[in-house]
Structures are given as C-alpha cells and as structure tokens.
UniProtKB/TrEMBL annotation, chain A:
Gene Ontology MF: a single term: oxidoreductase activity
Entry cofactors: Mo-molybdopterin cytosine dinucleotide
Domain spans labelled Aldehyde oxidase/xanthine dehydrogenase a/b hammerhead: 28-143
Protein name as annotated: Aldehyde dehydrogenase
Lineage of source species: Bacteria, Bacillati, Actinomycetota, Actinomycetes, Pseudonocardiales
Matches recorded under PANTHER family: ALDEHYDE OXIDASE 1-RELATED (PTHR11908:SF132), XANTHINE DEHYDROGENASE (PTHR11908)
Keywords: Molybdenum, Oxidoreductase
UniProt entry tagged with the keyword Oxidoreductase: yes
Organism: Pseudonocardia asaccharolytica DSM 44247 = NBRC 16224
From TrEMBL, chain B:
Keyword Membrane found: no
Domain FAD-binding PCMH-type positions: 1-177
One of the record's GO molecular function terms: oxidoreductase activity
Entry keyword set: FAD, Flavoprotein, Oxidoreductase
Record lineage: Bacteria, Bacillati, Actinomycetota, Actinomycetes, Pseudonocardiales
InterPro entries, per database record: CO_DH_flav_C, CO_DH_flav_C_dom_sf, Diverse_Substr_Oxidored, FAD-bd_PCMH, FAD-bd_PCMH-like_sf, FAD-bd_PCMH_sub1, FAD-bd_PCMH_sub2, Mopterin_DH_FAD-bd
Pfam families: CO_deh_flav_C, FAD_binding_5
Record's protein name: Molybdopterin dehydrogenase
Organism expressing this protein natively: Pseudonocardia asaccharolytica DSM 44247 = NBRC 16224
Oxidoreductase found in the keyword field: yes
Length: 797, 291
C-alpha cells in the first residue's frame, strides 16, 4: 500500500490564466461608464474653449447665452474664482521652481487653444452647446510661444509677465566625475532626440457629475478617474470643504492611461455650476474636446551624449531633458520630463553622470500623466545612444548591452540618480529574448528579405520600469505633495464570504480579478467567494497617489496578502475552537478547514463566519474580537523595478518611408506573475500605444499655437491592422521588498516600444547608416533621412 | 459634438427629394450614408437647417451593366459594389479601389453617390470615376443631365451639382476583357484617407502594344486628377521600363499638391510619381493579351 502524502496546494489561482471577472458585463455592453450614470434632477453642462493660443480676455458677454431657452446658468472665470481656488499641483521635483497655476476657467488671459473660458449648464447637452455659441468674448491677441525653440529664444514673448523668461526651473543631478569621464573616453556619441506630443487618449473621454448640497455643505461626485482619493483631497483644497464631506464615486472606466490620474478643471466647473443651480451637474468631455482638454504628454527634446571605452564600457552620460510644458501646470507639473532624467541611464552601470531637466512653458495644452510617465524618453536616451555606440565600435548590439548590465549580485543597485533598483537578472532576460528571435526564425526572414532586396530589420530595446510607486517619505522628499502607500480591507462576512475594499481603480487592467486571486489563495477559499469593491471614497480605504505608477498589483497585492495572512490566522483560531484542535494543525482548502493530514471532521468558512458574527456562544474563543476583518496599510520600503527585453521585426519601404511592423516579442520580468494572461494584456496594450507614439500619433501645433490634429482623422491611434503579432515570455525574479514578490507591469510596453522602432528601422537601413532620433517617425520624415543618407553615401563613394 | 438643431424629412423617391430641395434651397442637405455629413454636423462645420433623407429611395440602389456601361445607383452602398460580381466583371478596378475606402463598417453605410457628391480630393471613388472617364447622372427640377467626371469635380468639396439637384447615379465604361488593373495607396493607416492614391487600368492589343491606359491619382490636387499626359506616353508602344519612366515624368506637371499635417506637398508630388510607376507596372503585368 502506498501512502500518499496529502498535498498542500498553497497557490491555486496565482500564476494561472484566470479569466477576467470584469469582462462578461463589459463584453455584453452592460458596463456603466460615466455617461451612463444619471442622477435625479441632473442637468448638463458644456465648456467654451479658447480659439486662441495666447490672448487677453477684454470682455465677456454672456447675456445672450443666459437668455437662451433651456439654459440654467452661465459661468465665467471671474464668477468661478470667487468660490474656487486655483487648480492644484502635486509634484514639485525641481527646487525653487516657478509654478504656473490657473483657475479652472481662465480669468483674464488664455494661454493655450482649448483653455476653458466659460461654461453653460442647460436642460441637456445639445442646448448647452447651442448656448455656447451665444457667448461673446473679445480677445486681444498676444504673441504666441508655439514651441520649445520659440520659448527659449532670447527675445521670446513671455507667458507669465512676472517671470524672467519661460523657464519654470531646472535641476541637475551629477554622479562621479563626468567631465573627466568624457575627457578620457575613446568614443563619445551624441544626439538630439525629440518625441512629439501625444496623449493617452482613453476611448472613453473624461466626465463627471457633481452634486453640491448646500444644506449639508457636501459634494457628491461621480468621476471618471484613476485617483478618487486624490480627487477628493484636491476638491477639498480647491473649495475649502472638509474632506469627509466629499464623496467620490467612480463607475467603469473606459481606459485611463494616466490621463485620468490628473485632476482637471471640469470637476471644479461642474461643482460650481451645481452650487449655483442647486442641481446635480453632468459635464462630459466629448471626443473633440479631449484633444485639447485632456493632459498632453511626451513632448520633449533630449540632448544627450554618452562616453565609452573602445571595449564598449560606458563611462559617462550627460545631457538635458527639455520638458515642453503647456500654458499652465497640470496636476503633476514637470514630473514626467524629470522622470526621464531619473531613468536615462536605464539598465546600465554608468558611473559618471551630469543630467539635467529643464521645464519650459509654451502656449500648448498643459502637460500631464500618460502611461510611462517620462520613462519612455529616458529609454530613448539610453537605448538609442548605446546602439549608436555599438555601430561606431563595430560591436554587436546585444553584447554592448550585456557588458554594461549590473550583475544580479550587484542589486540593490543605485543608478547614481535617485532610484535604487531592487533586483534583476538582466543578462538572462536578454538571452531569453535573443533565443526566441532565433526560435521564431527572424534572422532567416531578414536574410531572405534582404536577398530579395527588401529592407527588413530587427530592433531591440531593453527597458526598466520602476514600479510600485512608492515609499511615501521618499516620494515626499523628491517633491511629491502626496503619499505612496496603499490600504486595503479584507472582510469575511457572517456566511464566510469575502469582500476586498481597495482604493485602487480598475480601468482595464483586471485589478478585481488579480485581487480575488490573491485573496482566494491566502485565505484558502474559492475565488467565487471573493468580491472586490473599488471606486467609492465613502466605503473604500485610502490609497496614496492613485492608480498609477504601476502600483495596484504590487502595493494593493501586498496589502491583501498581509491582511489575508492575519485574517487566515484568525479564521484558523476560530475553527480550532469549533474543531477542538490546535490552530497550527489546521489547513484551509476550498473554504473547508480541517486537521492537516486527516480526513476527519471539517468546518467551513461559513461556520467560522457564523461564530464570529452571530452565534458566538461557546464558538468564538474567549478574548477573540467578534467579526472577521483585517486592514493593512503597505508603504513599500523601496520601489520594485521590473524590466524586459523587447525585439521587433520591421520592413521599411525605402521609396516611401513607410514602416510595416512584422513581428514583435518581449521577454519580461515583473517578479511573481499573478495572472500571465493579464500581464500579457498589459504588455500588448502598452506596446501598441508605444508603436502608435513611434510611428503615428502626434499632437501637431502650428506657429500660431493651433492644434492641427484635433480629431481621429488626424490624430492617428494604431488599430489592429497596424499592430504586429506579439509573443511574450516571462522570467520570474520575485521582488525582494514586496510581500508576494510582485512587481508592476502597467508601463512596460510604452517604455520599451518607442526606441524599439528606431532600432529596428536603423537595422533595416544599416547599409545607409540611418539613425532615427525623432518620433513619431512618419513616412515623410523617414524618407528624408533615407535620402540624406543615400546622398551622403553617394558623396563619399 | 452635438449638432445644432436640424429638421428632418424623408424622401420616398427622387421626385420628392427634388421637391424638398427646391423648397428649402441651399439650407437643405441630402442625407445618404451619413459617413461624412454626420461627423461634419457634429463638429458644427456643416449646419443644414433640414436633412433630406434619401435612404428609402430604393430606385437608386442598383448595380447593372447595359451596352458596355456599368451603371451604379447613387444610393448603392459602397460595400455592395465592392462585393458585386457584376461590377467586378465590368470594371475590375472598382472592388480593388473600394477596399481602400475607410473600413468595412463605413462602406456598409457609405454610398457611391455620397462619396462622389462629397468630393473629398483625397477620396478614391472620385479618382476612379475621373480616371475611367465616367459620367455622373444628376436630376433636378428641369430633368436629368449627365456630367463628365472631369467637369463634375470642381474643387475641394465642390461639384457641379446645383443645390436643387440630386446625384442619381454614375456610369462607367466597361473595361475590355484582359485589362490589367492596379491600385496603390499611401495612407498613414489602413482605412485612412489617402496621402496619395494611384490607380491604373491597362489593356494590351494582340501585338502586345498598349491600346488602352487609364491613370488617375487622388490626394494631390483640389480635385481627382486623370493623368492624360502619362496615359499618352504609355499608349501605342510596347510596355517598357522606359515608357513607364516617361509616363511618370509627366505626373509632376499634372498635379498641384498642398502641404498638410501628414505630408508636405513635395512628398506628395514624389509619391504620386512613384505610385504611378508602381501601378502602371503592376497593371501591365496583370493585363492579358486577348481581345
Ligand atoms: C472612419 C472613416 C473613414 C473613411 N475613410 C475614407 C476613405 O479612406 N476614403 C474615402 O473616400 N472616404 C472615406 N470616408 C468617407 C466615406 O467614404 C463616406 O461614405 C463618403 O465620403 C460619403 O458617403 P455617404 O453616403 O456616407 O454620404 P453622406 O455623408 O450622407 O453625404 C456626404 C455629402 O454628399 C451629399 N450627398 C450624398 N448623397 C447625395 C446625392 N445622392 N445627391 C446629392 N448630394 C448627396 C450630402 O448632402 C453630403 O453633403 C471615411 C469615413 C469614415 C467615417
């Protein structure tokens, strides 16, 4: 007879491709997005936006709009400023920086096309838009600062009269002795990189419904946001209303991508209109408005140089990251261009650095959060420069990378500028990617194509993604006026079912699914027994920051694991009383608690719930508090840095400058993979956005500061037709500082994908020596590069 | 993105549509598939006071061939033409071109007449009709008239249609059997309006000399352009790389491209020339010598 040891299956859901619990409702079209929410007596608002990039408002006449049938109220900046403060800014990374603040409605001056200048609230949105046409505004045009060069020109017109120029501030980080490193280098490569303006463009634009109850002095807010707690704190700041009188609820989000992290003027406008009319006010940003009114991002120039030894060892890096900000600060100020500087060394050991961020104001829409948050441009710096160096040194592009990685035993690894990466097996990840390139036969495909005279190239990008933002005190230290911890409540009820309450927001990542997976595994219960509640500040706990910085899985996940551990212990103590056993001898499986290694009596979580809530007598151990609830607050001791190696196969048409994406793979390490399907989804979606940014998407302004790409006809999101097949491979190196070993994964794709395209195009055109430095790389731009290179080659031949 | 107030009337037949147009004059707009008109209204760029819906005018929904002419009703959905065996047999360029017009969902609603009446200079169908020497059939209070394509398209979004006229159909000459056709489109994404689109139809005589060439481009002028000089350069001789080069060399003078956010004029000019070469070559390769 064989004795079979009872198998203890600790992890049942974690690591498996569990289907998303969120999906059936959304796929059936029964999701509830902000515009699906109606509140009794609600009326609808619309915003009038500036047609000019820079002008003084000399007169506003709202009388005709006010008289229009169906109109309840018309609001101007002057009116708003009497009850609302300026729009808050939470990131101040640059010491002594000048902060350009503005009210939700322009008071006397407009500084970008699309800046809100007045608002109407009416019986419905149609009438509100009709009335907008009846508002008469006189503008006195001012000289326009249309782009970075115009802003920095010595005699540039100024956006803010009391500033000496258009520079908000700058900050330099140094490490080692950069001058000596550059002086002694065998090779210096340099380039001026440019990334055009882009934005996250969630398919559901922003929106809110605000009810200002003047009797209670309270605000009841429905908001399509990634950060309800932040919105609540900031509404309190703007209006001077106590935080506990503000409730923010969040329905389904049709995408956020960082854009819905930020706090916008429309929330404030709707609140003021509600206060003035005594009615709940809905204010939806429509698609057309979204191009000027949702945070823009990415707009940066990065002038950088890298010093190397002839063997490929990087000695130094120096340069300036210019953040091309808009006419006023968004919620996160100059945070993203600053983050580019923090990550411009990427996964490489660079002992000597001199790197600067310079934040510059222009007459464009405000700059804000977008998935990747500056790191994609840090990636452009290190990945493009290391490839230029490899080319000059005649080195293999993967070898030069490998040579400069910190070894696994060198972690925690201090980059020299702010971040300490927690852990990494970079070379293994690179090997994984290159082995898959071989397996997929890309090199043969490339060789065959080349033999046919076609230009096929393979691109690489090795990226780091600092995730799990972040240790609260460190965030405060580097200039964030907010925290980074996450709080969860794990509650088992009187029949043994579990509810998780979290301050995180689910905007498509599948947070509810992974939270249920983690809770089910720590508690030993079926996933079906777990419900996850998010999106209501009245019932859900506080999260520092919001859902951004790839923090929902590592921080919320860790908090669930820690709360779950304690709750599990309590469940076992109560079960021990019921089973007359010792808690240490018990196990929970599938919601049944029994003595390990026996097939004897068991009790269920239902029995435990009953003992904790209803029939306590002789069942709840003496001294044990009734109820089954644990709260955990997890403030991480360090961030968790995930990383990956991405590769792309492209074909370039040398006669037209068009690029076709043929195949794409990513080898990735985000520590413990909770759900491979969801991680793949994050990687794929993020890469698609990056490929859009690399080739298609650009918010183009003309010299008058007019936005030329203000609809989906001209702002070109990639579609399924443009996106290559994706292959993903996971390497799991648990995060040392995060319980559960989880690292974030939300921003991997956007970070990796832009430089990746440059690398692949360069490779396809390697005989010409083309170096892509400007994104998006549009057909006319690429054709110009090709022709320049061709004439250079002919000239030298 | 809410349109201004607008009245709505549904026409049961062409006569009724014309009567409504006559009554309301230039304040009225015909509503066909709505794929261009409705977005323009949502942006408040088009502000008709009344929409005259001709979607129920069944008499304008047909694809048929008679006497060597392919006739298509104005209200025929683009997708129906794309999948029509009659159209494919008569003018094989049609389905190839239509595949470049937006996405299937747009073509399910968008009509042939709507695309032609809208007259977007980058649109493919106007270029096809112009290139093949088609005719537009319009009807107004004074009856029916026929307008050659090159006279119909006058400028960006501007045609020879009078405000009280309805475009009722288009007529295209049948391409002889064995005609090779090709389309090349340079667009930023699949389904976008063309930066440049070029299309060609080429027929070879039994002696393998070129006896019919039709070449057209869109996106490079305020109207679609038929490339007469390029056609002449190819016609009569044997197909050769030199002949194609010579034909392409005439393109720059035939077009007047403008700068826009997607491409400068110089790029459009160069690409028009390149795509003409490509389509001429491909059409020649696909043409079969039979009568
Ligand atoms: C996402 C998207 C992508 C697109 N891509 C392309 C593309 O790549 N290429 C392209 O060519 N088009 C493209 N379009 C436009 C599309 O092809 C439209 O179908 C076409 O331009 C108009 O046809 P419609 O039937 O929808 O006309 P409507 O929008 O109903 O009308 C357009 C105009 O024509 C007038 N009109 C319509 N029918 C008649 C008639 N019988 N008599 C008189 N006047 C009439 C209307 O009054 C209106 O002014 C795209 C559209 C969308 C939404």
């Amino acid at each position: 007879m064989t004795i079979i040891e009872p198998v203890e299956s600790q992890t049942k859901y974690t690591g498996t491709r569990v289907r998303r619990t969120e999906d059936p409702r959304l796929l059936a079209g029964r999701g509830q997005y902000i515009d699906d929410v109606t509140v009794p007596k609600m009326i609808e608002a619309a915003v009038l936006r500036s047609p000019l990039a820079h002008a003084r408002i000399t007169n506003i006449d709202v009388s005709r709009a006010r008289a229009h049938p169906g109109v309840f109220d018309v609001l101007t900046g002057q009116d708003l400023a009497t009850v609302a403060g300026q729009q808050p800014v939470i990131w101040f990374p640059i010491p002594e920086q000048r902060i350009a603040k503005t009210h939700a409605l322009a008071v006397d001056q407009v500084r970008w096309v699309g800046q809100a200048v007045a608002a109407v609230v009416a019986v419905d949105r149609y009438v509100a838009e009709d009335a907008l046409e009846l508002i008469d505004i006189d503008y006195e045009p001012l000289p326009v600062v249309a782009d970075l060069d115009a802003a920095l020109a010595p005699d540039a017109p100024k956006l803010y009269d009391d500033w000496p120029d258009n520079v908000s501030g700058s900050l330099t980080y140094t490490a080692g002795d950069p001058d000596a490193a550059f002086a002694s280098a065998d090779l210096v490569v340099s380039a001026s990189f440019r990334h055009g303006r882009a934005f996250g463009c969630p398919l559901e634009p922003r929106g809110c419904i605000v009810n200002w109850d003047t009797f209670a002095g309270s605000l009841d807010v429905w908001l399509s946001t990634q950060s309800p707690n932040l919105a609540r704190d900031l509404l309190a700041e703007v209006f001077g209303i106590p935080v506990h009188k503000i409730r923010v609820r969040t329905p389904n989000l049709g995408g956020g991508f960082g854009n819905k992290f930020d706090f916008y003027g429309e929330e404030v406008i709707a609140a003021v209109l509600s206060r003035r009319t005594g009615r709940p006010v809905k204010l939806i940003e429509d698609r057309a408005e979204s191009f000027v009114a949702t945070s823009h991002s990415r707009d940066q120039r990065l002038d950088f140089e890298m010093a190397l030894r002839s063997d490929g060892t990087i000695l130094g890096l120096r340069g300036v990251s210019y953040g091309v900000l808009g006419g006023a600060f968004g919620t996160v100020g100059s945070g993203p261009p600053w983050a580019s500087v923090l990550t411009c060394m990427g996964p490489y050991k660079i002992p000597n650095m001199d790197v600067t961020v310079k934040a510059v104001m222009t007459n464009r829409s405000p700059y804000g959060s977008y998935r990747g948050w500056g790191v994609p441009k840090g990636n452009i710096v290190h990945e493009r420069l290391i490839e230029l160096a490899a080319r000059k040194l005649g080195m293999d592009r993967t070898e030069i990378r490998r040579k400069n990685f910190p070894a696994p035993e060198e972690f925690p690894f201090f980059t020299g500028v702010a971040f300490t990466y927690d852990s990494g097996r970079y070379a293994d990840c690179l090997d994984l990617a290159t082995s898959k390139i071989d397996e997929l036969g890309w090199r043969e495909r490339q060789a065959r194509a080349r033999a046919e005279g076609r230009s096929v190239g393979i691109g690489y990008s090795f990226h780091v993604e600092p995730s799990a933002y972040g240790p609260s005190r460190i965030l405060n230290l580097v200039g964030l006026a907010h925290s980074g911890f996450d709080e969860v409540t794990v509650r088992m009820d009187s029949i043994g079912k579990v509810t998780i309450y979290s301050g995180q927001i689910n905007m498509g990542q599948g947070t509810h699914t992974i939270y249920a997976q983690l809770a089910a595994d720590t508690l030993g219960i079926p996933m079906d027994d777990v419900v996850v509640i998010t999106g209501d500040t009245d019932s859900c706990p506080y999260t520092g920051y919001g859902t951004g910085g790839s923090r929902a899985a590592p921080l919320g996940g860790a908090a669930i694991l820690r709360a779950g551990e304690r709750l599990r212990a309590k469940i076992l103590r109560i079960a021990a009383e019921l089973l007359e056993a010792s808690p240490e001898d018990l196990q929970i499986q599938d919601g049944q608690i029994s003595v390990k290694g026996t097939t004897g009596r068991s009790v269920s979580t239902r029995d435990v719930g009953d003992a904790a809530y209803r029939r306590l007598l002789n069942r709840l151990p003496e001294g044990e508090t009734p109820t089954l609830e644990e709260v955990d607050v997890f403030d991480p001791p360090n961030m968790a840095t995930s990383y990956g190696c991405t590769a792309l196969l492209v074909e370039v048409d040398r006669e037209t400058g068009t690029v076709s994406l043929l195949d794409c793979l990513q080898a990735h390490d985000c520590g413990t993979v909770i759900n491979p399907m969801l991680v793949d989804g994050q990687l794929a979606g993020g890469l698609a956005q990056a490929l859009g940014g690399a080739l298609l998407e650009e918010l183009v302004y003309d010299e008058e500061g007019q936005l030329k790409t203000a609809s989906f006809m001209d702002y070109l999101l990639p579609t399924a037709m443009e996106i290559p097949p994706f292959h993903f491979y996971h390497q799991e190196t648990p995060a040392p500082d995060i319980p559960g070993g989880i690292k974030g994964v939300g921003e991997a794709g956007p970070i990796a994908g832009v430089s990746l395209v440059g690398s692949a195009i360069d490779d396809a055109l390697s005989d010409l020596g083309v170096a892509v430095t400007r994104f998006p790389c549009t057909p006319p731009r690429l054709l110009e590069l090709i022709r320049e290179a061709q004439s250079r080659k002919e000239g030298s031949a | 993105m809410k349109p201004p107030p607008v009245k709505y009337a549904r026409a049961g037949d062409v006569q009724e549509a014309i009567a409504l147009l006559t009554e309301h004059g230039s304040d009225a707009k015909v509503l066909a598939g709505g794929q261009s008109l409705i977005p323009l209204m949502n942006f408040r760029l088009a502000r008709p006071s009344i929409l005259i819906d001709i979607n129920r005018v069944r008499e304008l929904d047909y694809v048929r061939e008679d006497n060597g002419t392919l006739a298509i009703g104005a209200m025929t959905r683009q997708r129906d033409v794309e999948t029509s065996s009659v159209a494919a047999a008569s003018v094989p360029l049609l389905p190839e071109v239509l595949r470049h017009v937006g996405h299937i969902t747009n073509r399910n609603r968008g009509t042939v007449g709507g695309s032609l009446a809208h007259a977007d200079p980058a649109a493919e169908l106007p270029a096809l009709v112009t290139g093949l020497g088609g005719e537009l059939v319009v009807q107004g209070p004074n009856g029916v008239r026929t307008i050659p394509a090159e006279d119909f398209f006058m400028s960006t979004f501007t045609t020879a249609l009078e405000p009280d006229e309805v475009l009722i159909g288009v007529r295209l000459p049948r391409l002889p059997g064995g005609t090779g056709v090709a389309v090349e489109e340079l667009a930023r994404r699949h389904g976008d309006f063309a930066i440049v689109a070029a299309m060609a139809a080429v027929h070879l005589a039994p002696d393998r000399s070129v006896d019919l060439v039709r070449l057209a481009v869109s996106g490079v002028d305020s109207v679609p352009v038929r490339l007469h000089a390029a056609e002449d350069a190819l016609t009569g001789g044997r197909p050769s790389a030199e002949a194609i080069e010579a034909a392409a060399a005439t393109v720059a003078d035939a077009i007047h491209p403008a700068d826009d956010v997607h491409a400068p004029a110089s790029y459009r000019r160069d690409m028009a020339q390149l795509l003409v070469k490509r389509v001429a070559k491909a059409a020649l390769e696909r043409s079969e010598t039979k009568s």
